[in-house]
Amino acid sequence: MRKVIVGAMVSLDGVMQAPGGPEEDPTGGFGYGGWVAPIVDEVFGEEIDRMFGQPFDLLLGRKTYEIFAAHWPYAEDGPDDSIAKTFNSINKYVATRKGLDLTWQGSVALNDAAADIARLKQEDGPALVTQGSSDLLQTLFANDLVDQINVFTFPVVLGHGKKLFGNGTKPAAFKLAASRISPSGIVIGRYVRDGKVATGDFAMDPPTPAEIARRDKMRQEG
């Protein structure tokens, strides 16, 4: 089976919109595009290389695909030659509800993202790695299709913008498989699925009369 691995750069308040540049995605009046660039360091680069050091195919939403297709096919022989050649040579699975001109070699349209990705997961092949694609991520989380999350949390608060997790996310437990903190303060965590969410209780047993009254009030307030 193939795994779905989410790769996400997020702010402390969970925003992942337009990390790469001012013109990447100004949707909703977002004015902080390129917030990652001043903070990246050598450790960040090493962990990105590690994430892409395994066999993988890309799994992208429409907008991220358009950003990548306008950049990576033209980036070979430049400073990012290695990753450009890798991205250009592998399969790119693109979730799109609209007709999209798939100009990038190796691109495959997914018209029903949840069903098509569930089918892809049952096949033999490399991991399916996301980049950006915040709308697609909501579909993946809502349909319990994510096996691993690689989160790069940057020491910045952005206030608003597209976020990693939305209200439709299906509850799931993850465990920390590896972590690292970069010199510039990027917290890097690799989380893998760990079954269902477990709950516990720190309350007194039996509850005090004050606690019983509090619970009754909460139920009445809804």
**What gyration radius follows from the Cα positions, in whole Å?**
20 Å
Percent of residues in helices: 25-40%
Shape: globular
Task: Report the mean per-residue pLDDT as an integer.
Answer: 95
> What name does the CATH topology carry?
Dihydrofolate Reductase, subunit A
Main structural class: alpha/beta
SS strand fraction:
15-25%
Count of domain modules: 1
In the CATH hierarchy, the architecture is: 3-Layer(aba) Sandwich
How many beta-strand runs?
A: 8
- Show unreliable segments: none
CATH superfamily: Dihydrofolate Reductase, subunit A
Annotation field: number of helices: 6
What's the CATH class label? Alpha Beta
Key words describing this protein structure:
222 residues, alpha/beta, Dihydrofolate Reductase, subunit A, 6 helices, RibDG_C, 5-amino-6-(5-phosphoribosylamino)uracil reductase activity
Q: Can you put this structure into words, describing what you see?
A:
This protein has 222 residues and is α/β, with parallel strands linked by helices. The protein has a single domain, classed as Dihydrofolate Reductase, subunit A (3-Layer(aba) Sandwich). It is 26% helix and 22% strand. The chain starts with a strand and ends with a helix. 27% of the residues are buried.
